[in-house]
Design brief:
Length: 680
């Protein structure tokens, strides 16, 4: 009878030539999946290390398979008709019969306990799916572990997405010892030392190494290619050249597969696996930064050759091929690209000659989105709109950058930078807001309604930062522009900003009069949000002028209005104001509860400026209740909050005296040195 005759030993697990870095957790998870499922597919972006994780996992489970582990490398195979033959060869079989080779393989594995590793299936995904399904049905004792940028889609398949290596957190400055525990840094250090003997990650180069692996997305292949460049370049020279990472990262191993010798070859391989529509979408979504949702993709990328109704299927294809990664937020799917994948898409978009058009469509989409957010800012959708904009903050930055780099777009950039009006405050990023507005105002000096509003917002953020003297000239220019344009809304906001500056300079009579006028101006225009905001601040001013009953009545009026309209942010400000005023009036029993409720309402907005003022009230309450160590911790949190948002409590003098009294009392109540330790 014709049978499969052993040709030799099975293709076992190739020995590692270099140490596998930072994959203990991934290997453990894949082992767990293999114990529960007979087919496990490792997916992930090109160069992320799927093969290394698969082979290391296979090496750790060999004892569980009495008939061994067989590794089948498929990267060099192009003809799917030869797949069964390639597997047979790896199993050590030769078909000397007239039977189909797949039947020979099936007959051989039936009754065996074997792990079959199919490495690099993406370009043969249909054939691999059929083969895996056939073998798994015929041989209950075998398990199949595959690596692919495209899931097989076989019933019972468990998918594990191999992530990039962890990289240092950009906002932190860890010690060298901490950095060396970061897998991406460890990998770079090991590989760099191999080509440049004596290289070490030290205090002098730690920041450059951290930046390098961050910008390479933690992709092991990219890190190894960069390390190879240490023969000829310094770290700082490499960082400077990363703007064109595909030209830089070209020194792969001569023994590696051709597509793994350069980063561009790896991306070209992924690109070739895509359909025409998938290639088009890959290029177009490269205009996004951070992540995006389907609505944004349809608004920016749909065209005659890529209809909106086809977009879900095309996105699904890119997710399956690991070009896009998917995560969920608030019940909606969002999609992201590694920076390396995005830059490749941008190159493709530039080559198509359509980059300018899609960058403009991207800007227009976010200009429309922020306008919608402003229109619905005072109401029940307020928190949802803020969350949506915060998720798209990276895209807003890209849109603002477009407005600054494209001639004639600065006015549109000003509209984008001030809508919705309180975005930078609720985002807790006063410095960034002023940064964009300063550049936009310098780029376009011609008078316009957009420039007037940008001036006002720039000055307002400066007041909140405590830079009042610096902000006053811009405030005067804003008011003059509002009068020239006969813009009643701008005039009302000008009075509000001037009132706030007066309040922070402790000129309370002027502040109260201006807040009163501003509230009346907004009310006359039907702007309930503007009127309510001015009224909350008026309450604080009139309290300190001695009219306590009116101040509390104004707070409760604002609470009622905001509750009736389902608004959260101004309601939180009104609760804070009432808590502050009752504390200063000696009625302190309710202050802590009011401040906590205000913080709860502010948290969805990440409004750290106003949250910091609420935490002040909680700290005062803790000290008054005798919880001095807790009060010290809260004072430490406050320092961090003010440093983070670029603000200062000195901008709110109506709280400064109580803050100092609290700090002095807590310091006096704690043993020497303990206050500073608690604050730290």
């Amino acid at each position: 009878m014709g049978t499969g005759v052993p040709l030799g030993g099975m293709a076992g697990i190739p020995a590692d030539l270099t140490a596998l870095v930072g994959r203990r957790t991934e290997v453990a998870e894949v082992r767990r999946l293999l114990s529960a499922s007979r087919l496990v597919t490792l997916t992930g972006a090109g160069g992320v290390g799927k093969t290394r994780v698969a082979l290391r996992t296979a090496a750790t489970v060999t004892r569980a398979f009495r008939d061994g582990v067989c590794v089948v490398e498929l990267a060099g195979l192009r003809d799917p008709k030869l797949l069964a033959h390639t597997v047979a060869t790896a199993l050590g079989l030769v078909n000397q019969s007239g039977r189909a080779t797949l039947d020979v393989v099936t007959g051989h594995v039936r009754g065996r306990r074997l792990l079959l590793v199919l490495d690099n299936c993406e370009h043969l995904v249909d054939a691999c799916a059929r083969l895996a399904d056939t073998l798994l049905r015929a041989a209950p004792g075998i398990r199949v572990l595959t690596t692919s940028r495209h899931v097989l889609g076989v019933t019972g398949e468990q998918v594990f997405v191999v992530p990039p290596l962890p990289t240092p957190v950009p906002s932190r400055r860890p010690s060298v010892r901490e950095l060396l525990t970061c897998p991406a840094v460890e990998l770079f250090g090991r590989r760099a030392a191999a080509v440049l003997p004596g290289f070490e990650v030290t205090q002098d180069n730690a920041e450059a190494v951290a930046q390098l692996v961050q910008r390479l997305d933690g992709l092991p292949l990219a890190i190894e290619l960069a390390a190879a460049r240490m023969r000829t370049l310094t770290l700082h020279e490499m960082l400077a050249r990363l703007e064109d990472r595909f030209a830089l990262l070209t020194l792969g191993s001569r023994t590696a597969l051709p597509r793994q010798r350069t980063l561009r070859a790896l991306m070209d391989w992924s690109h070739a696996l895509c359909t025409e529509r998938e290639r088009a979408l890959w290029a177009r979504v490269s205009v996004f930064s951070g992540d995006f949702d389907l609505r944004a993709a349809a608004a920016v990328c749909a065209a005659d050759d890529l209809p909106a109704e086809a977009l879900v299927d095309v996105v699904d294809g890119l997710v399956e091929k690991s070009v896009l990664t998917r995560h969920e937020h608030g019940g909606r799917a969002r999609y992201r690209m590694l920076e390396t994948v995005r830059e490749y898409g941008q190159d493709r978009l530039a080559a198509s000659g359509t980059a300018a058009a899609y960058r403009r469509r991207h800007r227009d989409h976010y200009l429309g989105l922020t306008a919608q957010a402003q229109a619905q800012w005072f109401g029940p959708e307020q928190a949802a709109w803020f969350t949506r904009l915060r998720l798209d903050h990276a895209n807003l930055r890209v849109a603002l950058d477009y407005c600054l780099t494209e001639p004639g777009e600065a006015v549109a950039g000003m509209r984008l930078a001030v809508t919705p009006r309180h975005y930078w405050i609720t985002l807790g990023s006063l410095h960034e807001g002023r940064h964009w507005l300063d550049r936009l105002l310098a780029a376009e000096r011609a008078q316009s309604p957009a420039r007037a509003t940008a001036l006002g917002t720039y000055a307002y953020l400066g007041v909140l930062q405590g830079a009042i003297e610096e902000a006053l000239p811009a405030l005067d220019e804003y008011r003059a522009a509002a009068e020239h344009l006969e813009d009643a809304s701008a005039l009302a906001w000008a009075r509000h900003h001037q009132a706030l500056a007066a309040a922070f300079r402790w000129d309370l009579p002027r502040a109260a009069a201006l807040f009163e006028d501003a509230a009346a101006g907004h009310r006359a225009l039907g702007d309930l949000g503007g009127a309510t905001e001015c009224t909350v601040k008026l309450a604080i001013a009139v309290w300190h002028l001695g009219d306590h009953d009116r101040a509390l009545a104004l707070c409760r009026e604002c609470e009622a209005v905001t509750s009736a309209h389902g608004e959260s942010w101004l309601r939180a400000l009104a609760l804070f104001a009432r808590g502050l005023l009752q504390w200063q009036g000696g009625d302190r029993d309710t202050t802590d509860g009011l401040a906590r409720e205000a913080i709860r309402l502010m948290r969805p907005f990440h409004d750290w400026w106003d949250i910091a003022m609420c935490v002040e009230l909680v700290a005062w309450s803790a000290e008054a209740a005798g919880a001095t160590r807790r009060a010290a911790h809260l004072l430490g949190i406050l320092r961090s909050l003010w440093e983070t948002i670029g603000g200062t409590l000195s901008a709110a003098p109506f709280m400064a005296e109580s803050h100092q009294r609290c700090e002095d009392a807590v310091r006096a109540a704690l043993p020497a040195g303990e206050f500073d330790r608690a604050v730290r």
